[in-house]
Amino acid sequence: MKANFLTVLRGCLVKKMVYVNPWGCFVEEAERVLTEAFSKAYPVFKGLRIQLEEPPSREYGDLSCSMCLSLARKVGVKPVEMARKVLSNLSLEGCVFIDRVVVSPPGYLNIYLKRGLMVGEAVRSALALGDRWGYVETDKPLRIVVEHTSVNPLHPITVGHARNSFLGDSLARILTARGHKVSRRFYVDDVGRQVALIAYAYRIVGDSLFKPGVKPDHAIGELYTAISALVEVRRLKEEVKRLRDSGKFDDARRVEYELSDWIGILSEIERKNPELLGRLMEGMGSEDPETEVMKLLRDYERGAEEVVKLVKPLVEKCLAGFKETLDRVSIEFDSWDWESDVVWSSMVRKALEGLIRSGYVKFVGGVPEFEAGRAVDELGLREELGIPKSFEVPSLTLLRRDGATLYTTRDIAYSIMKFRDADRVINVVGFDQTLPQIQVRIALYVLGYREQAKNQVHFSYGLVKFPGFKMSSRRGRYVALDHLLDEAEARAYMEVTRISPHIPEPERRRIARSVGVSAIKYSLLSVEPGRDVVFSWDRVLDFKRNSAPFILYAYARACGILSKASEKPNEYDVGLLREPLEEELGLTIAKFPQVFLEASENLAPHTIASYCNSLATVFNSFYDHHPVLKAEERLRKARLALVEAFRITMRNALRLIGIEPLERM
Q: Does position 11 have pLDDT exceeding 50, yes or no?
């Protein structure tokens, strides 16, 4: 029996027979016995990959297999008959956690768990493993680069960028806990027209832009909006005149509508900062800003000393503002990679030359275009790189007409650079970058970096929306993360004061800061990345359900119980935990390693957030219905052990999404 036990659960144990992943072992057992039973009952299904799901009710088992419903027709029998035959060939020899398997109409195989055993092993494992509980380490560690945030140095970090930051940071934490060597990277986009535009404006206004008490990234954001508005108003006025002179009055009216919007933005800037707007207008005079901007762009790309001295310090000031914001939310980077360093090296030139030699570049009006779509079709890359059949891949323009590089071209070179130190690269970038991300991977493949092309992942995500407010960074219409954090902290302080007025003022402030940050993080992480987030303060700071305050409050409750107990839960009998809510809490704790494992393999941090909410919900129900400190002594010890297992599990889960739990609220 012992030999079978160790064989079945290989990879599930550590020293002294402590389970690393008890629920995973149960799933593994179920998959093994069902695979064997299907093979014996119907040899045609030998080696069948078993699919299991958790049924909606305990009445139908702890796991269920519905495969007979779809497979029965292939062997010409009814699903229920097939399920019965599979069951008759099923052996539970060597199983530890499976209690029984039952057939239910119209052909389900329901697997029932030895619940008491699972609860006991989960509690014992959590207490024994402590900080490592739940973190199932891989036996094949990889070097992984997670590039995230990478905000253009033109304005403060917005709430939209914050979702990127929190997702990327959580991915890095999860993959590190899995045992991979993770490098967190921020790509400093200091090359391109936008930075050249802000540098042009900075050359006019100088350091008078920066005022005491105003973060530099916020000041730069205001300058970016002002110069964008001035340039756009000038351009659109010329466009309206050209269209009217050509008799295209309908087109002119459409442009006038956009012009009116930009004039409104200028009026708002004049109201807020007339000095800034006046200096810009005076400095611009009658010169063509576009000509000056493009000259700055070209000069910076070639590393002209006077332009580098203008651009670099400006970008560094913006990055200083970013770092201050990121420090508030406990996000750090291992490397800040400057795009200019990529351009000034030979990497971009070599990538361009390689693509031209590949035969997949054509010249249109003297401008090189990478025929990515043709490469996909001729090299059969749709399946190899996971490009949907319906996704049309257009050609990629590699250079401007004046010879300046374009962002995606530079990104090809940067991708090659990232793979110098990585087996896998994860780029956390919005949905709107789907096409460029695919084109970069195709270019890597054509350049001979075939494994790298397969191992570069675009982790995409949706928008953050505020009802009735359309965001635009260029127009200065955005919600800065700094302001959102300030508001969250203020609201959290009022709620903490209402709930716990007895807590000293400094402590209330500290708690409010932590709750505010955690609330924003959770609200942006808990929604599946593919869906947009609709921001609502009522949901973000809801102390009663599915929010960081709700989860943190459950954790603080557990800490309160444990701090009042005179003893640590060293000797306990988990066999006494037979109440339904005790079992449910124990089973939820048992599932944590499997949830973590699936989150790391599927790159799904939102599932960790969802798990935290489920765990808090179950704990609160247990807390409301079952006294711990006032229970009979033996039961008290068992429940204390359960509460401690909950505390360890919740702490470890929250840390994966960058939330530091609070022992007091």
A: no
| Apex 306 CA angle, 304 and 312, nearest 5 | 90
Q: Residue 408 corresponds to which amino acid? A: T
Q: Answer for the pair 638, 576: CB distance below 8 angstroms, yes or no.
A: yes
Q: Are 654 and 605 in contact (CB under 8 A)?
A: no
Residues 433 and 293 in one domain: no
- Residues 159 and 229 both lie in one domain: no
In a domain, 124, yes or no: no
Domain presence at residue 136 = no
Question: Is the domain of 512 the same as that of 646?
Answer: yes
* 500 shares its domain with 634: yes
Domain end call among 415, 440, 465: 465
Are residues 449 and 408 part of one domain? yes
If DSSP states are collapsed to H, E and C, what string results for 362-373? EEECCEEEECHH
**Residue 552 and residue 662 in contact, taking contact as beta carbons nearer than 8 Å:** yes
pTM comes to 0.93
| Residue 123 within a domain | no
The answer to whether the CB of 368 falls within 8 A of the CB of 374 is no
- Residue 329's SS3 state is coil
Domain boundary among 283, 301, 330: 330
Among left, alpha and beta (phi > 0; psi -120 to 50; other), residue 520 is: alpha
Query: If 0-12 CB within 10 Å is exposed, 13-18 middle and 19+ buried, where does residue 614 land?
Result: middle
Residues 211 and 158 in one domain: no
| Residue 130 domain flag | no
pLDDT digits (tens, 9 = 90+) for 146-185: 999 999 999 999 999 999 999 999 999 999 999 999 999 9
Whether residue 105 is preceded by a cis peptide bond, meaning omega within 30 degrees of 0, is: no
Domain count, the chain: 4
Q: Which domain holds residue 42?
A: 2-113
CB 600 within 8 Å of CB 175: yes
* Backbone angles phi and psi of 535, in degrees to 5: -75, 135
Put residue 448 in one of left, alpha, beta given phi > 0 → left and psi -120 to 50 → alpha: left
- pLDDT class for 8, splitting at 50, 70, 90? very low
CATH no. for residue 367?
3.40.50.620
Say what angle helices 193-205 and 274-284 make with each other, to 10 degrees.
Answer: 100
State how far the Cα of 640 lies from the Cα of 647, in Å rounded to an integer.
Answer: 10
* Contacting residues for 353 by C-beta, under 8 A, at least 6 apart: none
Of the chain, the percentage scoring pLDDT greater than 70 comes to: 98
**String of DSSP letters for 390-456:** T-----EE-B-TTS-B-HHHHHHHHHHHHGGG-SEEEEE--GGGHHHHHHHHHHHHHTT-HHHHHTE
Q: Are residues 40 and 97 in the same domain?
A: yes
pLDDT score of 5? 32
pLDDT at residue 13, rounded to an integer:
56
Which 3 state secondary structure label does DSSP give 6?
A: helix
Q: 100: domain CATH number?
A: 3.30.1360.70
Q: b or e along 372-406 (b: 16 or more beta carbons within 10 Å of the residue's beta carbon)? A: bbebbeeeebeeebebeeeeebebbebbeeeebbb
Return phi, psi of residue 228, to 5°: -60, -45
| Cross-strand pairs, 188 | 338
On whether both 197 and 236 belong to a single domain, the answer is yes
